TrEMBL record, chain A:
Stated name of the protein: Phosphate transport system permease protein PstA
Keyword Zinc: no
InterPro entries: MetI-like, MetI-like_sf, Phosphate_PstA
GO cellular component: plasma membrane
Protein role: Part of the binding-protein-dependent transport system for phosphate; probably responsible for the translocation of the substrate across the membrane.
Organism whose genome encodes this protein: Parafannyhessea umbonata
Family of this protein: Belongs to the binding-protein-dependent transport system permease family. CysTW subfamily.
Domain ABC transmembrane type-1: 95-312
PROSITE patterns assigned: ABC_TM1 (PS50928)
Transport is among the record's keywords: yes
Subcellular location: Cell membrane
UniProt GO MF annotations: phosphate transmembrane transporter activity
Automatic annotation (TrEMBL), chain B:
GO biological process per UniProt: phosphate ion transmembrane transport
Alphabetized PROSITE patterns for the sequence: ABC_TRANSPORTER_1, ABC_TRANSPORTER_2
Gene Ontology MF: a single term: ATP hydrolysis activity
Keywords: ATP-binding, Nucleotide-binding, Translocase, Transport
This protein's name: Phosphate ABC transporter ATP-binding protein
Domain ABC transporter, residue spans: 16-258
Amino acid sequence: MTSKDATGEKNAPVAEAEDQAKAPSADYTATVRRARVQDKAATVILTVIVVLIIVGLAAIIAYILASGAGKLVDPGFLTKKPEQFKAGGGIGPELFNSFYLLVLTLVISLPISLGAAIFLTQYAPQGPVTNVAKTAIETLSSLPSIVVGLFGMLTFVLTFHWGFSILSGALTLTMFNIPILVRVIQQALEAVPRDQRDAALALGLTRWEATVHVLVPAAMPAIVTGVILSAGRVFGEAAALIYTAGQSAPELSWAAPITSLANPLNVFRPAETLAVHIWKINSEGVVPDLTAVSAGTAAVLMVCILAFNIIARIAGRALERRLTAE
Amino acid sequence: MTEAAPIQARPIDPVLHTHDVTVDYSGKRALNETSLSFESGTVTALIGPSGCGKSTFLRSINLMNREIPGCVIGGKVVYHDINVNARGIDTLWLRKRVGMVFQQPNPFRKSIYENIAFALKSHGMTKRADLDERVEKSLRSAALWDEVKDKLHDSAYALSGGQQQRLCIARTLALDPDVVLMDEPCSALDPIATFAIEETITDMASRGICVIIVTHNMQQASRVSNRTAFFLMGTMVECGDTPQIFGAPKDQRLNDYLNGRFG
């Protein structure tokens, strides 16, 4: 471009633009100013909201940890059995019960949920039946857990005569967990771009191969995150367990035969969990240090769930790298 | 056969022809009766404005439209004397023989090697040496081998868009198809990547593959194809040798389209 071009042909539009910049219309200025003010206001309001949430959550976490600190540093607290009448009891059986129930629940609910989600997203024809199933799952996932608990009591505890037991508790938690898991897995599968499935089908693969080898691996990080987050909810659940897994924790011994109530793996023994323990000692506890025990249990519960969340992120990322070679 | 290929001048033995193929989406007709035939070793371009039915036609050749709920394909799709649009035809076999490359590059979220080996494995190739050989051969066919040979186990997503599309072509060629359907394979790519894909298309045809390509780009159609079919509003209007279609269109609508009057 020569200087002649720049001064000659280009001059007019530049001058015009400068005029516009110097003297924009009043309407235009007002609109721009209003948009800027709105943007600033939104930034301030949103920041304040987020700060409030973070401060609130941090305060709760700090309070729970501080209240439970006394028991957390007590070396026997995590392993000893609870005391009925005197101070110094632990939460050993409750801690084990919580994990055992969680593992059993996931072992039962994960395959069922995965199958249901795959069926609903990949196989089910779009139609009234599928829509009813989806609505039912959504309704069930927001059902109050005490309702699920009472249903579990009527079905497993009373009708099936399993009593207050780990099996009754695990199946009740399964009912509580399946709708949540199905939704999470369904969303994860639906978030995989459609062209991935098309690519697999166009290569002459079956829907099953496309699902197992393409869709599920691509959705795996989201599935893992969802499963572990739902595990956090199951782990902290109390209402569904009070009338199904019971409120007593027999002292456990690995030496006991499998039929004994003391055998940790016996699924027909009653099993109070951490969350139920907190509820129970606060409502009917008589030990002198019940406030400390309750706070300590709450702190342990929270640390476990925090650990789940951190593990969820790390595991999700690691699995993603492994499955996608990224 | 003659009514299936009304515009064919030469006597041919088509690898694929369609006879009055129609496509309806939930009772709404998207493609009127279309009869075309395709020979081995040729490139056929399907052109026309958006929504004219060219992609719909392409996706009915390997019956991919069946994956869309409410879609019904009518008429006959005859592949090597077998009408594949019939009950009891194994679509898995058909799609292995009739490959497809999509508009957006859609490699799997796997390594470059696995993108190709995965479908081979599920079609029964299990020996590592066979897989290695086929992966290399198909990557060479898609002119991608030299660029990726040192990073076969890296993610396919680390590749550029053009490389990803060539990987998708390699993935299709690995199954040794004799027909390859391409649905606007270059529309998401820059001119250099487009040029590389066009070279690959010409190369595929020279090795006897029947290539059918949907394209928006008429320069591309005239560069790569031997024959061209023009679609408009769900109807195949005119089909002929590419120089004739672009140089001496018979139908007024094609003439208007080529002169930019619409579309």
